[in-house]
Amino acid sequence: MEYALKHQQHIKGLIVADMVASCPDYGKYADEVLAKQMDPKVLTEIEEIETKKDFSNPRYDELLVLNFYAQHICRLDPWPDPVVRCFTHLGGMKIPKEIYVMVQGPSEFRISGRLANWDIKNRLKEIKVPTLMVGAKYDTMDPKAMEEQSKMLQHGRYLFCPNGSHFCMWDDQKIFMDGVIKFIKDVDEGSF
After folding, report:
1. Domain ranges of the chain
2. Among 41, 44, 104, 126, which residue carries the largest CB count within 10 Å?
3. What's the CATH superfamily of 2-21+120-189?
4. pTM of this structure
C-alpha cells in the first residue's frame, strides 16, 4: 500500500492479502477479538510470559503455535512443507525474527514495534490502480476491515476466504487462487 501510494504509476494493479491499513486497528482487533477467542487459561499464561518480557521462553512459542497460529495463521494439519520451512527459517535465523520484532514487537497481541502507530487508512482513496483486498474468516487481520478498505479505494475489490486464515493462500486455496487469478485477468484485460 505504501509503495502504491508513492509509485502507482509503475504498477498495473495491487493485491493486498491479509493486511490492514492501520496497525492501531489491528492491535485493537487482536486484543478485543482474537485474544478473547483463546482458552482463558492459555491466554493468562501467554500474558504472564509477556508481562515478564520472557519472549525467548520456548513455552511462549509453544502456546502460540498450538493455540493461536493453528487457528489464525494456517488451519491445515499438518502445515504444508513451505509453511513449516518458513517458520523453521524464521526461528533458525536471527535476522528475520529481529526484523519482525522491530516492526511488530515481540507480542502477537500488542503492537509495540516501529509500526505501532502506522495508519494509512485515510490515504487509501489516493490509490488509483485496481486493487484487490483479500480477507479471511479466521485471519489475524479483521476481514471486515479488509472489506472496508476495498471500498475506500478508487478501484477496489474484496475477496473473502470463508475457510481461510492469515495464510488463506494455503488453507482456502481454491477461493484464494480463483479470486486472485480473476483479478489479474480482469486487470490485464482492462475489464476491472
Report:
1. 2-21+120-189, 27-103
2. 104
3. Alpha/Beta hydrolase fold, catalytic domain (3.40.50.1820)
4. 0.92
Q: Measure the CA angle with vertex 12, ends 183 and 143; round to 5°.
A: 45
CA distances 92 to 84, 85, 88, 98, Å, are 12, 10, 6, 12
- Set of cell numbers at residue 169: 493462500
How many angstroms separate the CA atoms of 137 and 157, rounded?
17
The region, left, alpha or beta by phi > 0 then psi within -120 to 50, assigned to residue 110 is beta
Question: What size, in residues, is the chain?
Answer: 192
- Smallest Cα–Cα separation from 100: which of 109, 92, 110, 90? 90
Per-residue model confidence as pLDDT tens digits over 32-71: 999 999 999 999 999 999 999 998 899 998 999 999 999 9
Cell numbers for 33, please give them.
477479538
At 116 the three-state DSSP class reads: coil
